[in-house]
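pipeline: protein-struct stage 2 | run 1193 | Fumarylacetoacetate (FAA) hydrolase
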Amino acid sequence: MSTNVLRTPDGWWAVRDEHAVRIDTKAVTTAGLLADRAAVREAAASGESGTPVADLVALPPVTTPCRVVAQMVNYRSHAKDSGFTGDIPPTFFRKASGSVSGPHEAIVRPAHVRFLDYEVELGLVMGAPLPVGTVVEERDLPSYVAGLVLTNDVSARDVQLTKTQFYESKSYPTFTPTGPYLALLEPEDFARLIDLRLRLNVNGVPRQDRTLADMIVRPAQALTLLARFQALDPGDLLLTGTPGGTALKAPPKPVEKIAALLPPALKWKAFFNGQAKNPRYLRNGDLVTATIATPDGHIDLGEQRTAVADAT
């Protein structure tokens, strides 16, 4: 059975239902905590009544600095929304770890960003080094992945599209809300990953809702492909893509063909004039809620509640 871990300004806690027991560890980083799994197990098995989780202030359970890597267009529903057809080559990009924020902190929209989008994603937290050249089979996942976190890959679409710049558009501070829980998995839990359901609402209205069955490149294959060129270490984070339902969608094919005939400046002007009418982009005061869990709650990464605020 997985163990949910919460991080607060006072340290680390093992979560049991609505209460949490402090973990007796000197670890200050996620990597340090993963090296002290005995302390986590001791707290989880403790007979203490614990502290109500509602009384604790959750910090991101992935500490920084760390590597934050993400997969692009990794759900069939998202590929359809994005206008992709046929085979999609697996693609990775980096995010600045300074973008990692807490599960209840505000998402701050920079003043120059007009089109702010959301992407609920399952995050894999590494528990062992992944050297370049590693081949990861499904049975090997427990040897490399320690646990899971709920993340939101917030995106400045106008920056991303006009500059074809993923790193900047997804790396502003607060653009990777993470947590509340780090779910530390036991080997038998990995068979349940396919049942995980990703959900994201904006102001209570459902926007994204899919299981991992919609995923194109699953975790073992993703780690193998990533390890062709990128090493990972304990505590590093891999975001595994988002399902369909984001604010950004590809224009209809006839419109896309006409736009291709325009000079770049006119093409982008026309595109963003159209996007300005899209009510799904995040705005000041919006509330984004997200969850990832199996239907039976065997794995439950908790709920994110993040308000959207304009930069002052």
